[in-house]
Amino acid sequence: MNTMNTNYSIRDEIRDFWSERAATFDESVGHEIFSEAERKGWQRLIRKHLGEGQGRAALDLACGTAVISHLMHEAGFKVTGLDWSDAMLAQARAKAKKRGTDIRFVSGDAENTMEAKESYDVITNRHLVWTLVDPPSAFREWFSVLKPGGKVLIVDGNMGKETFVKGLQKLWTKLTGKAPASHMKPEMMARHQAIRSRVYFSDTMPAEAIVELLRQAGFDNIVVDRKLSDIHWAQARKMPFLRGLERMVQDRFAICATKPLA
């Protein structure tokens, strides 16, 4: 990573950070799926907001190793996974080949997809919005590539919001001198925080702020769904105690929005 290059932008840093995490990405709970209970939770969420695929075209933005892409494929969608990390796409393609799926993968920027206008019935993304440098522009782009009546399903969370578990984690560190268990090494965690400090949602990211930006982009029928406990409980059971407890109390949500028919 050449941070001395004056043309090296925050977007480049985000791409390189996730590229370096690609090889071990699927080892972390909350990234790959490690139980049938979690898989069923995701399938319930997808069908609740998007219905059965029935061959409809779906664009999975920042698809990473294709966890959500495969869930969408299982629901019957014709899926395109887009990511601008070649390392992530390599993992995604290898997984798809192993599973025998026909998911299409393309290299691209979630904020400027270069996909044809009005070419998708649905758009999905998980833990992408917090990384966006320009969400208003990105949402307008997503609006443009959706067909009239198409839907976007965002899964993310207000990770900057303080919780009592964060207080417990700080107390644990103070008493023991040890940081809480993490899926990232300290150096990667520091880079993660440095990136977070420079993106649009650098502090908190309440669902209401996302809803307002979606509305400004032209979306309507916007629904905020916080009933994700089946997914989070299944994940928490696979995590160290404090991380699992934090997963259960965090303000995580799904937001579904519709492009008007006219």
Automatic annotation (TrEMBL):
- Keyword ATP-binding in the entry? The reply is no
Q: One GO biological process from the UniProt record?
A: methylation
Superkingdom, taxonomy of origin:
Bacteria
- Mind telling me which residue stretches traverse the membrane in this protein? none
Check the record and name the Gene3D superfamilies matching this protein: Vaccinia Virus protein VP39
Show the SUPFAM superfamilies listed in the entry. S-adenosyl-L-methionine-dependent methyltransferases
Source species of the chain: Rhizobium mesosinicum
A molecular function (GO) held by this record is: methyltransferase activity
Q: What is this protein called?
A: Class I SAM-dependent methyltransferase
* Domain Methyltransferase type as annotated: residue spans: 59-154
Q: What's the short name of a Pfam family annotated to this entry?
A: Methyltransf_11
Read off the lineage from the record: Bacteria, Pseudomonadati, Pseudomonadota, Alphaproteobacteria, Hyphomicrobiales
Keyword set, alphabetical order: Methyltransferase, Transferase
Presence of keyword tRNA-binding: no
